[in-house]
Amino acid sequence: MSTTLTDIRKLSKExxxxxxxxxxxxxxxxxxxxxxxxxxxxxxxxxxTNLSKPLREKLKEKYLLRAVSEQIMQxxxxxxxxxxMKLFDERMIEGVMIPDGERNTACVSSQVGCSLSCTFCxxxxxxxxxxxxxxxxxxxxxxxxxxxxxxxxxxxTNIVYMGxxxxxxxxxxxxxxxxxxxxxxxxxxxxxxxxxxxSGICRGIERLADEGMNFNLALSLHAATDEKRDQIMDINRSxxxxxxxxxxxxxxxxxxxxxxxxxxxxxxxxxxxxxxxHLIELTRQVPAFVNLIEYNNVEGVTLRRxxxxxxxxxxxxxRDNGVNAAVRRSRGKDxxxxxxxxxxxxxxxxx
Length: 351
Hints:
Elements: E1 6-7, H1 13-22, H2 27-38, H3 53-62, E2 63-64, E3 69-75, E4 81-86, E5 92-100, E6 103-107, E7 111-112, E8 130-131, H4 134-152, E9 158-161, H5 171-182, E10 194-198, H6 202-209, E11 216-220, H7 226-232, H8 235-238, H9 241-255, E12 259-265, H10 273-283, E13 288-294, H11 308-320, E14 325-328, H12 345-350
Parallel strand pairs: 1-2, 6-9, 9-10, 10-11, 11-12, 12-13, 13-14
Antiparallel strand pairs: 3-4, 4-5, 5-6, 7-8
Helix pairs in contact: 1-2, 4-5, 6-9, 10-11
């Protein structure tokens, strides 16, 4: 395929309308195409049925439409879905749909692989091959939403940027995907239903605060001292906790939104009462809700899930000291769809 073709989804509505005028077509046809691309989420020009066939052929000669395609779907015993999706360059990414009562949550990826190498995460063992563009992130939501409707009878209610990759290292594409997802000419979802999760990129957190949007922020914390966090998350060496505290408080001051601390409990690493005290101290510096996560063991990783008695004592100590904390039960672990397990196993097995 010729490299001179333009990716039509990289163009704004105004750009497309102007291109149609330049082709001698009415401006409103360009607006229709923009709606087909985003509001109706078509995967090919042939699906734009209110355009004449000659016009569709003309579009094919000038433009690319690089849609994401679903390749693999697995369903967990608990109803969680894991979807393997292929990109235009044959690379694979994974996304997850988690049903929970009336909520259906999509967990979407922002990169192919990841560059942060957190020691407990399967995705961190992959190399980062490239960032996803905003259309590829958007397509994940469309595909997962279709599967949510098919399997539960309800559309998505929430989106979390907690899949493969670090969202704030693909900042512009992540933000543009959120704008489209929440736009009336896109999926028109509420900003309040979206959560961006970061391993802790201070400058990115501060940029988020200045966006003037009302989505939620989660920090993958997992240890409440620099000494322990350095051991499992290299990013902490360049973005230590006290710098993160400043950035998180800046986010809270600008948006009024509490931050969520995501904290995986590892057996005899970060699950002692002393560890809980460090976490309590951190929550007194940053207005935050604490989400305690059951670890899902990953092949080749020595860290293991905290024992139930230590987990329960940890949670009780937090709550006794006024911390708003909840335990997030593991979902989809039988299909490697749970937190920290996304690693494109099917793709590697086929290669």
